[in-house]
Specification:
The chain is mainly β. Helices cover 14% and strands 35% of the residues.
Length: 80
């Protein structure tokens, strides 16, 4: 977990970052990373760096694990 001053610095950096997008869970402009799901082997979870919540789940055929992605307004996950 980040401390308060680290969170403020992170949000300040993300304001100008091209890979950052709005998180559907916390509402902040952050980066999102994919990671393999613990539930199934062919599922990838999209996780917010700021709040560390799972925002989306998708199959590994569409998105690879351990890459940064953007979540568009219509909910589609695209590589950043």
């Amino acid at each position: 977990m980040m401390k308060l001053n680290e969170r403020r610095a992170y949000l300040d950096r993300m304001r100008k970052n091209q890979q950052a997008c709005l998180c559907p869970k916390c509402g902040k402009k952050t980066r999102h990373m994919t990671r393999p799901s613990k539930e199934a082997s062919d599922v990838v979870e999209v996780v917010c760096e700021y709040c560390e919540n799972i925002c989306r789940k998708t199959t590994t055929g569409l998105i690879r694990p351990y890459i940064y992605v953007k979540i568009r307004n219509d909910g589609v996950v695209v590589p950043a």
